[in-house]
Amino acid sequence: MIKRNAENSLKKLAVGFPIVLITGPRQSGKTTLAQHCFAEKPYVTLEDPDTRDYALHDPRSFLAQFPEGAILDEVQRCPDLFSYLQGIVDRDGRMGLFILTGSQQFEGISQSLAGRVGMVHLLPLAQDELLAAGDLPTTLDEFLYKGAYPPIYTRPVEAFQWYANYVSTYLERDVRQLIYVQDLALFQRFLRVCAHHVGQLVNLTQIANDCGISQKTVEAWLSVLEASYLVVRLQPWYRNFNKRLVKTPKLYFYDTGLVCWLLGIREVEQVKFHAMR
C-alpha cells in the first residue's frame, strides 16, 4: 500500500466525530485507506447485490449487525442508511463508530448527519506520495500519461488498459446511478469532447455542438462528472469577489492519465507531440 497524506487527518476525525466519510473518485484508494486505518472494524461493501438488498429493505436490522461499528463501502448505493445512522450514533455516543466511503458527492448527508460526520476527500495520488513510495515516474511525460490512480502503480497493468476498463465501469455503474442516459456511447463521446476542452473556458454551446446535444444536457452531464470527482470547473480568482461569481470557469479533469486515454494517447511517446500538450 502507498502511504496516503490523508491518513493522519482521517484518524483525527475519527476521534472527534462518530461517523467519518471518505469520498473521492472510484479507485482512488478509499477502501484501502479505510481498511488500513480501521483494521479492527468489519468491512461491508454495498456493491454486493445481496448486501445492498438487505440494507435497502431492512436498514434497521442491517445496521444492528454492527454494534461495534463497521466500514460501509460505497454507501451512496443506500442513502437511506444516513437517517438510521443518525439515531444509532446519537444513542451510542462513541466516536469513530462508522467509517463510510462513497464515490459520489453527497448532497443529503450534511442535512441527515449534520455535526456528526467528518469528511475526507481522497483524490488520486499526489506526487509526494508517489515519491515517498519510490514510484514517481522519472519524466513529466510519463507522469502525465500514467496519471495518479493507485492501481496503475500497484498492479501489473498497462495504463491504457486500466483506463479503458475504468471508463467502461464508470459508464455502466456510476452514470446510470446519477442520471438517466439512454445512449452510453454518446455519453462517452461527451467525455472525449470534454477532454479536448481541458484548460479552456467552459463553453456549453461549443461542447453541445461537438456532441450533438442540447446545452441543458451538457450542463446536466457536467454536473454528473463533477459529482463523480472526474472533473472540476475551476473558478477564476479575483480580489473582487463579485467578479469571481460572474466570470466563466475553466474545465479540468482531476487526473491527467484519464485525459490521455480519452484523447486516444496509448503510449508515453505520444504525449510529447500531442496538440493538447
From TrEMBL:
- Which InterPro entries does the record cross-reference, listed alphabetically? AAA_14, DUF4143, P-loop_NTPase
- The residue ranges of the DUF4143 domain are 172-273
Enumerate the Pfam families for this protein.
Answer: AAA_14, DUF4143
Q: Which domain of life is it from?
A: Bacteria
Q: Where is the AAA domain?
A: 18-131
Instruction: Name it.
Output: AAA family ATPase
Q: Which organism is it from?
A: Thiothrix lacustris
